[in-house]
Amino acid sequence: MDFNSQHKYRKSQVNGTIYVTSCLSLDAKRLAELESGADELFLTRIHKRCTADHIMQVAVELGDVYMLRFKIDFSGSSRGYAYLQYIDARRKALAMEILQHRFRLDRLKIQVRESRNRKTLFLNNVNHLTPLQVHQELRLISHYVKLCVYEYQPKRYVYIIIYRNNDEAAMAHHMLRTKMGNFGVNAFIDWLDKGQQVTALDEQPSCCVQLSRDSEQLQAKANSCRCFSI
Length: 230
Description:
This protein has 230 residues and is of the alpha+beta class. The protein is 27% helix and 29% strand.
């Protein structure tokens, strides 16, 4: 079966990711869930000669796919992993049970797991910028959903940056790594679950003050509190 025979999907590429996305009109609530990474599957052990089309040919046998994010290297070969979402939330459970077997029948040794949907980054050792300046630098690089700032010593902060989904967080992580010089010689960015100093923090931290991104008094308000979000 040609998975695109009815023009239900469109294909695009951004840097090292091939996107195969549904062209169907979806309910607004479900679309928002999917865009936030809901019901995402992680496909691993993909052979370097396997293509996004190969995976889609098998995946659509279980139902309509919302998106496949297929990772490739500079030569266009698979990097060994991809992310898959079905439109119908019930298809995730079915895929966890039988999709790996379906791949085996097609001579693909792909493993199917539940995605962790990591979407939170940890920025630390920014010593020469105020929280407002960090906020402004981040806005120039990528769009985040929420920035949480914690003052652990006088005028020393850690930043928890929350993105809409793993895809946006991964792109931001890549871009921020190339721009670390903007945040200081010792600054570093990593995924939150790798940041040993903040392992006790909840992934959706609840700060005592919520500041408007466009507030003219943002800096004054930020200076009055040790824990706030933007």
